Amino acid sequence: MIWLVCCLMLTVACLLYVFYLPGRLYLGPEKTRAGYLRERKDAVYENLRDLNFEYKAGKVPEVDYASLKSSLQDEAATILAEIARLEAAPASPKGNRT
User: Fold this and answer.
1) Residue 70: phi, psi to the nearest 5?
2) Range 21-40 burial, b when 16+ CB lie within 10 A, else e
3) 48 is in which domain, residue-wise?
4) If you write DSSP's letter for every residue of 11-43 in order, what string do you get?
5) Residue 98 maps to a domain
6) Fewer CB within 10 Å: C terminus or N terminus of the chain?
7) Residue 95 lies in a domain
8) What is the C-alpha separation between 40 and 47, in angstroms, rounded?
9) What tens digit of pLDDT does each residue of 20-64 get?
10) How many domains are contained in the chain?
């Protein structure tokens, strides 16, 4: 009987530990379009570095390297242009989105 009570208490404790939500949750900073674009730019630059490393290591054929590099550079240029456009535009109030 004592084992049943111990197992029941342990089960309740585990369920409370897993499913208990505190009254206040920290969700982190609000994401903006510019913040997302900066993260994406960092990822594209990292991909370019990795691609360059793998090409120099002989893991990527030259034809594939040229194609992938061109694609990543185009994506980076697009991202940088949009970041520049967002930074040049005046900040609009939150209620007035277009």
Assistant:
1) -60, -45
2) eeeeeeeeeeeeeeeebeeb
3) 31-89
4) HHHHHHHHH---S-----SPP-HHHHHHHHHHH
5) no
6) C
7) no
8) 10
9) 877 777 788 888 999 999 999 999 999 999 999 999 999 999 999
10) 1
